[in-house]
Amino acid sequence: MAEFIEVAKANDLKPGALKMVKIGDHQFVLARVGDKYYAADNLCPHMGGNLSAGKLNGNVLTCPRHHSQFDITDGRVLRWTDWSGIQLFMTKLLKSPRPLHMYEVKLEGDKVLLKN
User: Fold this and answer.
1) What is the separation of C-alpha 72 from the centre of its chain, rounded to a whole number of angstroms?
2) Were 68 and a residue from 47, 48, 63, 83 both cysteine, which residue would form a disulfide, CB within 3.0 to 4.6 Å?
3) Is 0.70 topped by the overall pTM?
């Protein structure tokens, strides 16, 4: 049964910051956009890049491996890769775009809680 677990303090992340958090064997990327917190699987669904090592610009999370981009507020794919032409075609053929798996996050006082 899923439960909320404290994964950070509110002031651990500045707006625009990313952080990897681990619960058991599972890694999550925790992101702060303004005063809101979001969480997703830490491994990019494209090729397994470490999303917490990526960049967050507004609500756009960019994977450091192949520059796939996702909206961290809802997980949708904005760009599957920055490749073009035949490389992009083959990538989409072999591994179709998939959104991030998102997790519920809430703030209680100064605690950031993630529901896993």
Assistant:
1) 6
2) 63
3) yes
Contacts of 58 (CB under 8 A, 6+ apart): 33
- Reported as a single tens digit per residue, the pLDDT across 21-79 is 999 999 999 999 999 999 999 999 988 899 999 999 999 999 998 899 999 999 999 99
- Delimit the domains of the chain by residue range: 4-115
Overall CATH class of domain 4-115: mainly beta
Q: Where are the alpha helices (DSSP H) in the chain?
A: 85-94
d(CA 84, CA 103): 31
Which is it for strands 36-41 and 102-103: parallel, antiparallel or unpaired? antiparallel
Spatial separation of the C-alpha atoms in residues 46 and 116, rounded to whole Å = 22
Per-residue model confidence (pLDDT) at position 60: 98
**In 3-state terms, what secondary structure has residue 86?**
helix
